[in-house]
């Protein structure tokens, strides 16, 4: 017997559908504006459809600025930071969750306390350090200083690994596995949801990072996507088609990453 959904469930689903459509409207508007001719964009009242679609805004965008180079810069920086943080945070989380050592709780609380400190306070000291090291306008300057901002990833990994039964680890030790092999072959396969969640959060955070690349980059060749969008909006503020095309290109990698790892997100956020 098939049970009919209650009125409450129906209302909840209706609300969720309306909320979803509401959140999709800005992206839909951005997408259709990026393929509209300039004359059609300026028509009033605005239309929620495209009469004469064109890819000219995208052609103008890639002619005006080296968008491909900026995309590669951002992808390289974000991928490097994601790989390091996922490895380092999960390894540190394993140590905090399954190993007893002097000062473990104190050190972990210090990591948590660092979450209350705005990262903006590190910009000036970080800039001075990068300048003294000769890393201005380089990938080292873009990547290395941001590797230390991983307290949230350590907390997320530690809480998830803490729920893994010790029997798995003890059995691996009896079989002669080293601690790193236990981490590699036992812990990592069990914490895929956390790794996926951490990958998405870190990638989006670094992809949208504007202030730090803006501070330490001085040439067009080293710019990342957020800096390129900021400069483009100041130079072509009236060309809405080109601006929307740039935003579509900039958001595409984040959507792809989200779609790849979306099934792990809830599992990673909801701690056992």
Mean pLDDT: 84
In sequence order, what are the helices and strands, one letter per element? Answer: HHHHHHHHHHHHHH
| Secondary structure: helix percent | over 70%
Beta-strand fraction estimate: under 5%
CATH superfamily: MetI-like
**Distance from first to last alpha carbon:** 34 Å
Sheet of most strands = none
- Kindly give the count of domains: 1
Uncertain segments are none
What would CATH call the class? Mainly Alpha
Tally of individual helices: 14
CATH topology descriptor: MetI-like fold
Structure report:
By secondary structure, this protein is mainly α. The protein has one domain: Orthogonal Bundle (MetI-like fold), CATH 1.10.3720. The chain has helices spanning 7-33, 38-41, 56-64, 67-98, 104-114, 123-133, 139-143, 151-162, 166-174, 179-190, 192-207, 211-216, 225-235, 240-269. The longest helix has 32 residues, at 67-98.
């Amino acid at each position: 017997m098939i049970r009919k959904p209650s009125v409450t469930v129906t209302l909840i689903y209706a609300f969720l559908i309306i909320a979803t459509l509401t959140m999709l409207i800005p992206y839909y508007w951005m997408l259709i504006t990026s393929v509209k001719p300039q004359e059609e964009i300026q028509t009033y009242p605005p239309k929620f459809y495209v009469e004469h679609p064109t890819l000219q805004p995208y052609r103008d965008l890639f002619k005006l600025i080296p968008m491909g180079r900026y995309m590669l810069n951002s992808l390289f920086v974000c991928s490097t930071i994601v790989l390091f943080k996922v490895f380092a945070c999960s390894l540190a989380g394993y140590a905090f969750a399954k190993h007893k050592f002097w000062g473990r709780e104190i050190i972990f609380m210090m990591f948590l306390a660092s979450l209350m400190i705005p990262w903006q306070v590190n910009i000036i000291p970080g800039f001075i350090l990068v300048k003294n090291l000769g890393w201005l306008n380089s990938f080292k300057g873009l990547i290395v200083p941001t590797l230390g901002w991983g307290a949230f990833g350590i907390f997320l990994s530690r809480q998830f690994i803490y729920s893994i039964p010790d029997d798995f680890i003890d059995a691996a030790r009896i079989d002669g596995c080293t601690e790193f092999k236990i981490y590699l072959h036992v812990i990592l396969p069990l914490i895929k949801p956390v790794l996926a969640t951490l990958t998405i959060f870190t990638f989006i955070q670094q992809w949208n990072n504007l202030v730090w690349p803006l501070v330490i980059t001085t040439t067009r060749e080293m710019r990342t996507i957020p800096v390129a969008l900021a400069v483009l909006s100041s130079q072509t503020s009236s060309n809405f088609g080109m601006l929307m095309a740039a935003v579509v290109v900039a958001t595409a990698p984040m959507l792809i990453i989200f779609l790849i790892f979306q099934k792990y997100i809830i599992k990673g956020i909801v701690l056992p």
